[in-house]
Structures are given as structure tokens and as C-alpha cells.
Amino acid sequence: MVFSKQYRRLQCATEMLSDGSPTLIKALLQTQMRMLALIMISVVVSGCTLFGDDEIATDTLSGEQQMYREAQRYIASSNYDLAIATLQSLESRYPFGKFAEQAQLELIFAYHGAFQNEAAIEAADRFIRLHPTHPDVDYAFYMKGVAPYDLTEDFLSGLIPSDDSKRDVSRARESFAEFSQLIARYPNSRYAPDARARMIYLRNMLARHEIHVANYYFRRGAYMAALKRGQNVVENMQQSTAVADGLAVMAQAYALMNLDDLAQDTLSVLCVNYPEHPMLEENCSIATEFRFDKLEHSWINRASFGLFDPPKPPQFDYRPTVVDSESDDGSWWPF
Q1: pLDDT given at position 107
Q2: CA 21 to chain centre
Q3: Would you put residue 115 in left (φ > 0), alpha (ψ -120 to 50) or beta?
Q4: CA 111 – CA 117 distance, rounded (Å)
Q5: What is the dihedral of CA 73, 77, 81, 86, to 10 degrees?
Q6: Each residue of 8-49: pLDDT tens digit?
Q7: 29 contacts 17 by C-beta, under 8 angstroms
Q8: Residues facing residue 286 across a β-bridge
């Protein structure tokens, strides 16, 4: 509409130029200059209107990308504290952005790298709750299994060798349950093989912990409690490396409770499956140090309710060097 009016004015000016009057020529030149100035202004204004929104969108996207790449650089350099701050800022500024979901996954890893494992578990739970159908939700389940066990680690555990099976294993049980859930829900996940290997390690550790507890009950004279621990290993952890000791604990407990038939049956099973166990001699007879003689409690021990001068029953800590292939794959696993 504006351009058509300007075009008609140019036509009129051309017709007036044909008269040859100097005054008219000067007036027409001034009119043309004004028209050209108006045309240039209109083009500039229309250009800002047409391309302004795209420039704003491009700037916004590049800002989100820049923050995400910055967080990636921090993670690559193991600067997890700055990575956490950057990812949190990205999520708060662009909650529905292109990188929002990926930033939540990266945040789980950053928390774990910064030894903030409680926060890593919470972040994984949050991701699973918000994005249950996300193609990478299996990673959140996997990290829920990795993080709990690492909560029991401390600075000295990495410097001084220690037996994890003698420590509190509640977190290890939680980790085992999370890995079990991952494998049940996503058996073909790329994290499933690693989760299975970690479960083998955890299962062996939990079984060995049961044997340590049984040894403690033997020292206290709680033979039934020791028997329950051995039964738990034999019945529920059959592929662990502590099954042989589980059978030995059961045989010892039965004998100390005068259940000789059950003790002999258990020894027969031990002899058939683990003839190299130190409780047995070459002909499957009981070794001298494991004889089932009654353990006599001194009067000091009885008067102190088992706190002082306890009897010294045999202790079980047999760890075979050659085990079945599945146990061998995971018994060494450095969590």
C-alpha cells in the first residue's frame, strides 16, 4: 500500500519534469529524496520485524548449549563441584530446553563423582519419577545401585586394606536390590552386564558377612543363631564362595546342640561337594581342630553371661581360590 502510493507520486513527478520548469525540477528532486528516505526506513523496520524473533531464539539456544558444553568440560576435567553448579543453573533457566533431561542425567553422575552419593540417589529417583519412559532411564536405575555401596567408603578404606565383609553391609544389600531391579526391568540394558558382575561381588561379600556373624555367635555360645546364619548362606546364596563354610557352620552347630544325625548328614554333603575344606581330612573325616566335643564354659563365663572368658570354638573363613566361573568373574570386582 505504501509502495504503490510512492510509485504514483514518482509517475506524477516524471510528467512534471517534461515541462522543463526549474522550480518544478527542484521541488521534484526534494520530493524524490524524501521518498527514498522513507523507503529505506521502511525496509529497515520491516527487516527488524521479520528477523528479530529468530535472532532472539538463536541467542537463547546458543546460551543453553554453551552452559551444557561448559558442564561437560567440567566433568571431563573431574571438576564436579562446578559441573553440579552449572547443570543446576541450566536446569533452572531452561527447564523445558533441549538439554534439560540430559542435564538431569549428567547431574546424577556429577553428584557421584563429587562423593555426594545421597544427592546422586535423590537425583536418580527424581529422574525416574519425572521421565519413566526415557530411553536412558536404565542409567538412573544403574546409578541407584552404584551410589549406595559407595556411601560406606571413606578416605582410609582406600589406603588401608580391609575386609568389606566385616563392615556394615546394609548399604551393600540396598545396592544389590537396586541392581536386581535394573536387571528385572531392563535385562538387555547396556548396563546389565556390569550390574550382574557387581551383584556377584556383593553376593559373595554378603555371604561372607553371614559367616563372620556365625563365628561371633559361636564365640558367644549362641549355636542356634549361628545355625541360622549358615542356613541362610546355603539356602539363599548357593552360588557364593561361602557355601562351603555355610555347610561347615551348620555341621558344627548341629553337633554342639547334640543333633548328631543332622550334623553327620551335613558333613556328608560338605564332603561330596567341598572335599578340600579344612574341616575335613582326606578320608572326609573331621579334622582334629574341628572335633565336636562339648565346649565347656568356665564359671567366669557363666557368671558374666558370656562376656568374659568365652570358649574358643573353631572359626570358619575358608575362601577357595578356584570357584565356579560365575563366582570367579565377580569375586574380585573392585566396586
Answers
A1: 95
A2: 90
A3: left
A4: 6
A5: 0
A6: 555 555 555 455 555 555 555 566 566 665 566 554 444 444
A7: no
A8: 280
Q: What is the dihedral of CA 298, 303, 307, 309, to 10 degrees?
A: -20
Closest C-alpha among 146, 122, 148, 238 to residue 195: 146
DSSP state of 77: T
User: Mind spelling out the 3-state secondary structure of 20-50?
Assistant: CCHHHHHHHHHHHHHHHHHHHHHHHHHHHHH
The three cell numbers of residue 202 are 556383593
Closest CA to 294 of 226, 229, 221: 221
Q: Where are the alpha helices (DSSP H) in 77-169?
A: 80-93, 100-113, 117-130, 137-150
Paired strand residues for 280: 286
Write the pLDDT tens digit of every residue in 38-97. 566 554 444 444 444 443 343 444 588 899 999 999 999 999 999 999 999 998 998 888
pTM: predicted TM-score of the whole model, two decimal places: 0.70
CB-CB neighbours of 296 under 10 Å? 7
Q: At residue 114, what is the residue type?
A: A
HSE (side-chain half, CA atoms, 13 Å) at 195? 27
Cβ atoms of 103 and 71 closer than 8 Å:
yes
Q: How far apart are CA 300 and CA 306, in angstroms?
A: 8
205-245 pLDDT per residue, tens = 999 999 999 999 988 888 899 999 999 999 999 889 999 99
Q: Which residues of 146-159 are buried (b: 16+ CB within 10 A; e: fewer)?
A: bbbbebbeeeeeee
- In the chain, beta strands by DSSP E: none
Task: Please state, in angstroms and as integers, the Cα–Cα distance from residue 117 to each residue in 47, 70, 100, 122, 172, following that order.
Answer: 53, 23, 21, 9, 14
